[in-house]
Each structure stands twice: as structure tokens, then as C-alpha cells.
């Protein structure tokens, strides 16, 4: 029986959210859309909500972050409710599993290990603990356990990090740069002589090495690409604004004119533009 008092309690916290989720999934009185969902149909929303959290942080939209975190939390609640209905586990089990994991992975905080070590050493210890956990799960291969559903660029970096742990890595960033030149040349040759499928393969190889370069330079490639996207939007909107000043739209302009305005926008951003 739904707890109506809890559902309508503005200070009900986590118990309230869990009760609302149960009500939404109730076969007799719930929402038809929520009732029809399963893990596979909800998973894309979970990924989307995670990106919206990252977007709010990237834009420093702190007034939006609370809501975005709530949306992401609701995804965990939704999956846990479906799991409980299937007799697999409950939300409390999810929370307990995470708590157990955090305690086990931080013996320097919750155990008797010394806290007198650097963040770098803690990262090494963290990876050793995770490796032991994978061994308990019979994940014997170096690359076992890297989630298939991750964004491809992020997964590439994680795969490369795993391989680097066992020594399969270029020792210097110059070797990565040389490999980028090699892959770029192979892509050029493929474009001229090979099939579309082979061109796509060579393009993937180049992206994979670019991800490796990001790792060597200690750059988060997803964050770098998001920043590049934001910069492109900002500058293209600057081009549109300048076209509007002369009564034009991009479709009424041409590449030469827009390229000149693009360069002007770049110089203005850097404080280097002069009318003279």
C-alpha cells in the first residue's frame, strides 16, 4: 500500500524518493510509461543524465547542478526498483555494496594503514585493490572489466591505462606523436586507394592514438573535446553576429567571408584585433 503521507512529505528525503518510484511502477496504480520500462530502455537515459551533470559542472551552472544530480540519482533508483521487482537486489543492497567497496578501497581512512602517502601513491594502491577485486571475479585478462558501454573515447583511454600497467606502452610522448604521423599517413593513403570500411578502420586507429596522446599529456580527452565544442559554438555564433550586422545569414554568405570573420572573432577573443 503506497505511503501517501511520505509521498507528499517535502522533507521525506531518500525514503520519499524510493516510495515515489515504487508508486510509479505499481502495476495497478502506477504510470503506464514507467511500468513498461526495463533495464535496456532506461540505460540510455542514465547515460544522458550523467552527461547533463557533467555539462552543468562544465558551465559552472551551480543553480542547475542540484536538479541534474537528482535526475541522475533517480536513474539509480529506477534500476534498483526494477531489480527488486525481479528478485535480484534492492536499493539498500546497492548502497551497502558501494559502502563496502569504499571502505575496502580506503584502508588508509577506515583501516589501520597510514594516511601519510601522496595522492599518486594512493592511485597506485587503488589500482592494486581493484586488480585484486577483478581476480576474485575471475577476470584474469588485463583488459577484463573495462565496460563496453563507455563512450568510445573514454574506453580507449581506460584500455590503454590497463595495458600500460603491464608495460605495454610507449615510454615517451614523442613515440606517440610519431605514431600519430604514421596513422595520419595511412589514413591519407586509405582515402585515396581503399574502401570506405578500410578508411573507417584507419580513422579509428588515428582516434585511438590521439586518445593515447591525451593520456600521456595527462589530458582528459572527453573534457578537451567538450571544451573544443564550446569554443566552436562561441566562435560560430560570433560569425553569425557579425553577419547579422551587415544584414546577412550564414546561408547568404560564402566560405571566404565566413572564414575571414572567424579569424576576426579569434583575434578579438585574444585581444589582438585592430581595425587599422
From TrEMBL:
CDD domains: NTP-PPase_MazG_Cterm (cd11529), NTP-PPase_MazG_Nterm (cd11528)
NTP pyrophosphohydrolase MazG-like domain mapped to chain residues: 37-110
A GO BP entry: dUTP catabolic process
Keyword Coiled coil: yes
Enzyme Commission number(s) of this protein: 3.6.1.8
Keywords per UniProt: Coiled coil, Hydrolase
InterPro entries recorded: MazG-like_dom, NTP-PPase_MazG-like_C, NTP-PPase_MazG-like_N, NTP_PyrPHydrolase_MazG, PRib-ATP_PPHydrolase-like
Reaction catalysed by this enzyme: ATP + H2O = AMP + diphosphate + H(+)
Molecular function, one GO term: ATP diphosphatase activity
One Pfam family, short name: PRA-PH
Enzyme class: hydrolase
Chain segments annotated as coiled-coil in the UniProt record: 173-200
Segments passing through the bilayer: none
Homology family: Belongs to the nucleoside triphosphate pyrophosphohydrolase family.
Designated name of the protein: Nucleoside triphosphate pyrophosphohydrolase
Lineage per the UniProt record: Bacteria, Pseudomonadati, Pseudomonadota, Alphaproteobacteria, Rhodobacterales
